[in-house]
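Design request, tokens follow.
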């Protein structure tokens, strides 16, 4: 492969199951950097949650957050942020809450939810973000968020995702980032669309010279950007069928092994 750009999901892909970049993966990425190969993470996480990882990776490149609702510069400042307007976000929250989903929204450097619960505590721990309980979430929301995240059993998430996609068709985008995460973003906020916008901004990101890695539904548009698409061994089966290649799991440093074997 003649590759000059690596684009990758984070959780379930670049990060190990412990949500860290392993020393082996870091060594391979540093070798890529020495050879002039660029790294662009594209995550469902919003930029405050991505930043600690990005500071360690030190890519010197922009990156993509919020499933494509954010493009962030190498200086960790927002270049672009797409948002859901308040009435639409409230309508989405109400529909999710009616089905028994835990729901949270994002603003500034924090995420907001109604009351303390195990889902909020788990998200604080996994994301490293500040979480704030606000009571009635719909009454609280007076700003346009980049996304709405909801949590439920994986079977309910799979069932309800297409229902919400049909209900809000032409107004919002719905995807599954982890088996129990159903997310709503503004139109145009997919990882693939954000990568295309970033490619137009820069003029030097070419699909044929890009390799893309992912593991979940929200990575499908990212993999569609390039003929060099790689699904993780732990990926959804439908994503594996879409990808040109399947590598080892994230528990086995699959991304790093693939880069070492096929790119370096």
């Amino acid at each position: 492969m003649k590759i000059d750009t690596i684009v990758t999901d984070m959780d379930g892909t670049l990060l190990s199951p412990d949500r860290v970049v392993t020393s082996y993966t870091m060594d391979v990425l540093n070798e890529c950097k020495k050879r002039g190969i660029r790294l662009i993470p594209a995550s469902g996480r919003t930029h405050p949650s991505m930043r600690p990882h990005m500071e360690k990776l030190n890519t010197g490149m922009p990156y993509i957050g919020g499933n494509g609702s954010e493009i962030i510069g190498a200086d960790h400042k927002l270049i672009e942020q797409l948002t859901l307007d308040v009435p639409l976000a409230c309508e989405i929250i109400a529909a999710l809450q009616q089905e028994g989903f835990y729901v949270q929204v994002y603003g500034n450097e924090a995420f907001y939810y109604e009351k303390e619960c195990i889902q909020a505590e788990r998200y604080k721990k996994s994301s490293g973000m500040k979480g704030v309980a606000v009571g009635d979430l719909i009454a609280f929301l007076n700003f346009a968020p980049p996304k709405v995240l909801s949590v439920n059993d994986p079977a309910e998430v799979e069932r309800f995702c297409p229902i919400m996609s049909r209900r809000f068709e032409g107004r919002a985008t719905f995807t599954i980032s982890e088996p129990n995460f159903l997310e709503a973003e503004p139109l145009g906020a997919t990882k693939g669309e954000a990568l295309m916008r970033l490619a137009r901004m820069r003029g030097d990101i070419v699909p044929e010279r890009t390799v893309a890695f992912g593991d979940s539904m929200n990575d499908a548009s990212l993999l569609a950007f390039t003929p060099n698409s790689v699904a993780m061994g732990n990926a959804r089966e439908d994503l594996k069928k879409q990808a040109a290649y399947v590598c080892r799991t994230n528990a086995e440093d699959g991304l790093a092994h693939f880069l070492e074997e096929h790119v370096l």
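Comment from the thread starter after seeing the answer: thanks! Residues 154-167 form the longest helix (14 residues).
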